[in-house]
Structure formats: C-alpha cells, structure tokens
Design brief:
By secondary structure, the protein is α/β, with parallel strands linked by helices. It has eight helices and five strands; from the N terminus they run H-H-H-H-E-H-E-H-E-H-E-E-H.
C-alpha cells in the first residue's frame, strides 16, 4: 500500500475514509503522533490548500478533504480519550480559533498532543466569540490557551482576544498558531506570556521549556506517554 503524503492527499480529496485511515494506521506502526502530524497530516492539508488556491479543486472538494482529515485525526485521539484525566485535573489547556475563523485542524492536532502529555484539554473547535470564550476562561481557569488564525485580515480580531487575556485575572500562557506565523512577525500584538508558534517543532520546544519550569505537573491519571 502506498502510504506517501501524495497518496494520503489523494485519499482525502477522494473522500476515502477507509484508505485515509489505513495510511495513518500504517504510519502509526513506526511513528509517534507528533511525526504523523508533522510529516503526513500537515503537508497533505497544505497541498489541499495550495490546490484550492490554484483553482485546481473546488470549495466542495476542499471541504470534503477537511472532513475526512478531521475524521482520521479523531481516530488518532481515541486511545487517549479512554485514559483521559478527570475533568477537574490540572494542568488545563483550552484551544479554539478566533471568531469567523473556520480552519481548526492544526489547533486540533496541538490539542491532542497536549492530551497525550496528560493535560486536561478542552477543544472548542472553530469560530468562538470572544465574550463566550472569556466566560469559559473565567469559569474553567486554564493554565494555557491556544488560539489559531489563518488570514491576515483577522489580526485585528486576534488582538482583541489577546487584550482580553492580558486583562483577565486568570494566569495563563497564550500560544498563537496558524500558517501566517511563519511568514510574519506578530510579536507586537502579544504580551510577555504570549508565544507565537510557527510549527509543531516549535511546540515541542515550548513543551520542553514549560516542563523545565516545573509547571506541567498533572494530578490526573492517564495511561499516555510523552512523544519527546
């Protein structure tokens, strides 16, 4: 069976859930979630995006590929959910995309990698209004918030969220991701506890730094293991 990125991309675009899942399962026989996400999922979805930008595929085909990718990505999380920490365990991490932002697969991968490290995770998916999000933050009080955006004209929207986080009495690190982070410097819109993460390799660096400070001690039970 061809398990290349190209084969995976084609399976996604063809709406082939079975073949897409089989490719990922074959990768997982010898690779961690991190490597599967970085070396298979990410380049495949970037290729889908490039084809859409070049008008080689329709919006409908792009949505189909995204749906299949989301399905397969969820399967990689299943065994972690079976051993998740209790809903009150710490540390806590909350993930979402800004309002009107529909691209969420990258942030979903990040949320799963946090769950793998025994974090108590809430993934709010896409398009979360600021007012509703802050109610959740004040109530649940996470140690980390992860936010994603993919289009330059949503920087103003992102700034509103970051300002609200800075003014909150909840002490938390803020991780900002999205495909534009590797192209532009957004540091001027963040505070000292805001980290702009351009890819999964930088996320691994953040994990190591966070662990060295001793801030990632969990009180929930989990059967998962680290990918580092």
């Amino acid at each position: 069976m061809d398990i290349s990125v190209q084969a995976f991309t084609n399976a996604l675009l063809e709406g082939d859930h079975g073949r897409s899942l089989a490719i990922v399962q074959k990768w997982r026989e010898s690779a961690s979630r991190f490597h599967v996400y970085r070396d298979l999922f990410t380049p495949a979805m970037y290729e889908v995006g490039r084809r859409w930008q070049r008008n080689e595929i329709s919006v409908a085909e792009e949505h189909l590929a995204t749906g299949v990718c989301d399905f397969v990505l969820t399967q990689t999380e299943y065994e972690l959910v079976k051993h998740s920490a209790s809903i009150d365990a710490t540390p806590k991490a909350l993930f979402f995309t800004v309002e009107n932002e529909a691209h969420f697969l990258g942030m979903k991968m990040v949320s799963i990698l946090f769950r793998e490290r025994q974090w108590n995770v809430r993934f709010m998916q896409a398009n979360v209004p600021l007012e509703d999000l802050m109610k959740e933050v004040e109530k649940w009080r996470p140690s980390v918030i992860g936010v994603s955006f993919s289009l330059a004209y949503r920087v103003d929207e992102l700034t509103k969220y970051l300002k609200a986080f800075a003014e909150s009495d909840v002490e938390m690190d803020v991780l900002v991701g999205g495909r534009l982070i590797s192209r532009y410097d957004f540091s001027s819109v963040g505070s000292l506890n805001t980290y702009f993460v351009k890819d999964l390799d930088e996320l691994m660096t953040w994990f190591k730094t966070y662990k060295q400070t001793g801030r990632d001690v969990a009180d929930g039970k989990s059967g998962t293991t680290s990918i580092i």
